[in-house]
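From the methods appendix. Each design record in this collection lists the tokenized structure first, followed by the designed amino acid sequence. Records were kept in a plain field format so they could be parsed without special tools. The example shown here is representative of the layout used throughout.

RECORD:
FOLD TOKENS (204 positions):
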């Protein structure tokens, strides 16, 4: 099994990717925005997607979308082919696209909205936290993408503040702030070392 950054050579998988996403949503009975093969091909060509292949057989997929001048990144279309489910592949794909996003868009906030408990669990393990929709992108185009979802009327009735999906966010700046708060500065460490040296070597 290989999970790689997608490119034009993977165009032949566009149809099966769309079919797998749509079939999965129908089986689960959850709302999901539809994708077209043409749209998927754009993601493959731009390098904003990862694909899992078992030899030449399609196994899984996920792609990146950017919003507000690339200040927000979302992972969409996460799917595992039925033949490869319950093997931990979804987490591997999600981890791959997460790391790829951090490398390609290091300053962007990474977020997602989902109804799937399995995806929520993976996101949490990667460092996402549940947030209100107000902390996500305000880009009109993103929310327009929800129009093909059967639950869109719920989103609209709640003025886009809440829906059946849960919003989750990974903010790289917040992660750095937490690290800085936990890690003493080198100046503090130097002063502490001097105090320890003075204490242990002071004359009686």
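DESIGN:
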């Amino acid at each position: 099994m290989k999970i790689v950054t997608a490119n034009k050579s993977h165009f032949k998988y566009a149809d099966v990717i769309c079919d797998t996403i749509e079939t999965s949503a129908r089986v689960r009975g959850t709302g999901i925005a539809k994708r077209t093969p043409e749209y998927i091909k754009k993601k493959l060509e731009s390098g904003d997607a990862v694909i899992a292949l078992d030899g030449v057989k399609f196994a899984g997929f996920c792609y990146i979308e950017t919003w507000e001048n690339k200040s927000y990144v979302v992972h969409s279309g996460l799917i595992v082919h039925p033949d490869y489910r319950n093997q931990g592949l979804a987490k591997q794909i999600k981890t791959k696209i997460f790391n790829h996003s951090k490398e390609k868009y290091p300053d962007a906030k990474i977020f997602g909205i989902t109804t799937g408990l399995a995806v929520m669990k993976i996101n949490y393990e990667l460092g996402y936290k549940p947030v209100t929709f107000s902390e996500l992108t305000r880009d009109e185009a993103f929310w327009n993408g929800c129009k093909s979802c059967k639950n869109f009327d719920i989103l609209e009735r709640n003025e886009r503040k809440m829906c059946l999906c849960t919003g989750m966010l990974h903010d790289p700046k917040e992660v750095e702030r937490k690290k800085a708060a936990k890690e003493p500065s080198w100046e503090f460490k130097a002063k502490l070392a001097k105090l320890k040296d003075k204490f242990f070597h002071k004359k009686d």
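APPENDIX NOTE: The first helix runs from residue 14 to 28.
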